[in-house]
Amino acid sequence: MTEPIISIRNVAKRFAGGVTAVDNISIDIMPNEFFALLGPSGCGKTTLLRMISGLETPTEGQIFIGGEDMAFTPPNKRPTNMVFQSYAVFPHMTVEQNVGYGLKVTGVAPAEIKTRTAEALEMVKLSHLALRKPDQMSGGQRQRVALARALVKRPKVLLLDEPLSALDAKLRDDMRMELTRLQETVGITFIIVTHDQDEALSMASRIAVMDKGAVAQIATPAELYEQPRNRFVADFIGKVNLLDAAIVKQKGETKTCDAKGIGKFDMLTDKACSNEATIAVRPEKLKLSTSEPKGAGLVKVKATIRDVAYYGDTSHIIADTVEGKELEINVQNDSRTGGAGVERGQKMWVHFNPHDALLLTE
């Protein structure tokens, strides 16, 4: 079995004043993995990344990279390199000089600097801009210069701290694809810190969702989205309808739920639960119809359309049930007439299959 490239063991970080930024975290990250640390501001993800890089020292616990304890290894001696949110490229240097700077200060021979710089620029598709200055380039191109400068040192692990947050939406989407392609091409471990769920879901092979200094769940993007462990993860990863429910009957794996604003329905689940739980249903699992839907076991409720937001390929709809529960529904706009074919104030049926819902007990 492959050994982890990074092992984080019971790591904690406490700052003056009793602030606990990271609280007893243990994670194994595998070679060539694209791993994301995802969470809201202040959850400890950047502090954890800085401890991996050596820019912060753990209060407790150990960090191993390549099987070696990093406790007494300074940042410049670790097999890692970091790309910061601000890029930090030198404005007075050309692209080529920026990329080769780290090799130059460590005494690498000029001929090798030239070769490795050319290789790094080719990786990020900037060979044709080698003689340009950063102020003659776009934000995305400057980001790629920062990546090349990190990759030229051939680290075992590349650390990325919110690397796309300064880019506009279209460029951010393009750079997500670039980073994924680059990680597959160079074959090294990438660890990215982000608060953007779409960014983590679209790029990472595994994600650690963090909350208040602790890890709430580690899983693949699909597992996090479809099988969140608790209410926090379900609510943080994408949009979700969370229904407070009473469990009024349990017989084997069949749970009869009474959800506020929805009513009673049966769910099949092997999860043990008390008399109260949360039902999570993603907006795309909810369907709309003008007539009462037919089908055994369907959960259905009358509702009034309150808002319709058009996004081109989809429409996001908010509906209020007759008992006052707000529901969010995503509808695919697959008609050339445009839009979801619903209007504010329209009376409709909202329905979903209980198999598409998830019972949360935490």
Account of the protein in words:
By secondary structure, the protein is of the alpha+beta class. The chain has two domains: 6-235, Rossmann fold; 241-360, RNA polymerase II/Efflux pump adaptor protein, barrel-sandwich hybrid domain (OB fold (Dihydrolipoamide Acetyltransferase, E2P), Beta Barrel), CATH 2.40.50.100. It is built from eight helices and 20 strands. It has helices at residues 45-53, 95-105, 110-123, 139-151, 169-186, 197-203, 221-226, 231-236; strands at 6-15, 19-29, 34-38, 60-65, 68-69, 80-83, 157-161, 189-194, 206-211, 214-219, 241-251, 254-259, 263-268, 276-281, 287-289, 299-310, 314-321, 326-332, 347-352, 358-360. Strands 6-7-8-3-9-10 form a six-stranded mixed sheet, with helices on both faces. Strand 7, helix 5 (169-186) and strand 8 (189-194) form a beta-alpha-beta unit. The longest helix is centred in the middle third of the chain and has 18 residues, at 169-186. The two termini are 33 Å apart. The mean pLDDT is 90.
* Distance between the ends: 33 Å
Unreliable residue runs: none
- CATH architectural label of the largest domain: 3-Layer(aba) Sandwich
Structural class: alpha+beta
Neighbour order of strands in the largest sheet? 6-7-8-3-9-10
Q: Gyration radius, to the nearest Å? A: 25 Å
**CATH structural fold name of the largest domain:** Rossmann fold
Count of strand segments? 20
